[in-house]
C-alpha cells in the first residue's frame, strides 16, 4: 500500500486517539439469511457479447413539449453519466429486484449503530481489489464520500494538536485544481472553516503553479486532490506529472475517479490502471452513480484511513446504510462492467471520432445563452444539458454532452448537423471541441488524452 511514511506516523497518532474514544471496526458483520440459488441476486449473473434492446432505453425518451402544446416529443438524450448503459442491464435489474424481495432494505441505521451486511462488504472488497487498495469505504452518495474523506483528513490535524487547535504547521495543506467539481469544493470549505486545513487552489492542470505553491507551504502534511477526468471540462489531469511531483514533495495523492472508474483501464480500474500507477495513488475516490448506473460513493484506501473515515468521516458516520438492493445492483453492475469490456471499447470508439473524452464540454458564455442553446437542442430532438452556476462561473456556462456505449455514430452525426451552433466552439476538429479562452483562470491548452487500453 502506497501510504507515505510521514503520513503513516501522523495517521497512526490520530488513530490511537480515535481508538480511545470508540472502535468502529468492532461493528458486527451482519450475515443475511442464506437463500436458494433461485433467490440469490448474483446467481448465474448474465453477461452478453454485445448490446441488447435495453441498452437504449434511457437514450431514446419522450419528453413534454417546451412550448406548452400538448404531446410528447421523441428525443435522444446526451446528458447522463451512465457511460456503460448499465442502469438498465438485466443482471442489474434482477440483482436489485431479487435482493429487495428476499431481504427488503436491510439494516436501517448508520454503520456505527448496526454494522454492515455481507453484501456491503462484498462491494467494498471488490472496489478495493479493482483499485489495488487494501480497503474501501462505501458511502450513501459520491457527494458524501468527498465530504467524509475531507473531514477525516481535517481530523488528522485537529486530533493531534494541543487543545485540538492546530498551528499553521500542524494544519494540513490541501492543494486542489481550480476545476475540481463542487462536491470537492464543499468539502474543502468545511475543513478550511474548521481551521484544520489551509486550502491552495492551483490553476487548471498547471503543474508549475502547483509546484510553486507546494514549495511555499509551511504545512508538514500536504495533500494533492485532483479529478482524473474533470467533470466540468471533460479533460484529463496530467496524472503522470502529478505522480512525479509527489516524489519531490511527498504529498498524499488523492485521485478522484468519478468519471474514470469502469470507463478506463482494461478491467475498469480507472486512470490508475491505464497508467499502471495504482500504487502511487494513496486514495482513490469515486461514485457508482456514473459508469455503474446505480448509486453509492466509495473511498478506496489503506486500512488505517478506512478506520479514520468510519470514525470521523461525518456523512459516513451519521448516515443510514445504503439499502441492500442498491448495494446488490452496484455489485452486479461492477461485475458486468468487468466482464463486458466491449462496453468500454464502444465508449472510446465514440470518443475517438468526435471528442477527447466521453464528457464533451462546450463553452457557450452567459447563463441565458446556455439555456437558449439547450432549448434549441431539445427542439431539434436532443436532450443536452446547460451547465450553469453554481457549477461554473456565470460567464463560463456550457453545454455538456456525454457519450455512452449505446450512442451510435448516426446519433452523433445527427447531433452535429443541428443548425444552431456556438459558432467558433462547435468545430469538427478535436482542437475546437473545447474552447475556454474567455476565462483567465482556465488554461486553453489541452493535455493529450491518455491512450486508453481496455
Ligand atoms: C467529482 C464528483 N463528486 C461527486 C459527484 C456526485 O456523485 P453522487 O451523485 O454519487 O453524489 C460527481 C458527479 O457529478 C462528481 O463528478
TrEMBL record:
It is found in: Endoplasmic reticulum membrane. It is a single-pass membrane protein. GO terms for cellular component: endoplasmic reticulum membrane. InterPro entries: Aminotransferase_I/II_large, AON_synthase_class-II, PyrdxlP-dep_Trfase, PyrdxlP-dep_Trfase_major, PyrdxlP-dep_Trfase_small. It comes from the Eukaryota. Gene3D superfamilies: Aspartate Aminotransferase, domain 1, Type I PLP-dependent aspartate aminotransferase-like (Major domain). It catalyses: L-serine + hexadecanoyl-CoA + H(+) = 3-oxosphinganine + CO2 + CoA. This is serine C-palmitoyltransferase. Its cofactor is pyridoxal 5'-phosphate. It is an enzyme of class 2 (transferase). The lineage of its organism: Eukaryota, Viridiplantae, Streptophyta, Embryophyta, Tracheophyta. SUPFAM superfamilies: PLP-dependent transferases. One of its GO terms (molecular function) is serine C-palmitoyltransferase activity. Belongs to the class-II pyridoxal-phosphate-dependent aminotransferase family. BioF subfamily. Its main location: endoplasmic reticulum. Keywords: Lipid metabolism, Pyridoxal phosphate, Sphingolipid metabolism, Transferase. Pathway: Sphingolipid metabolism; Lipid metabolism; sphingolipid metabolism. GO terms for biological process: biotin biosynthetic process; sphingolipid metabolic process. Its EC number is 2.3.1.50. It holds the Pfam family Aminotran_1_2. Residues 74-417 form the Aminotransferase class I/classII large domain.
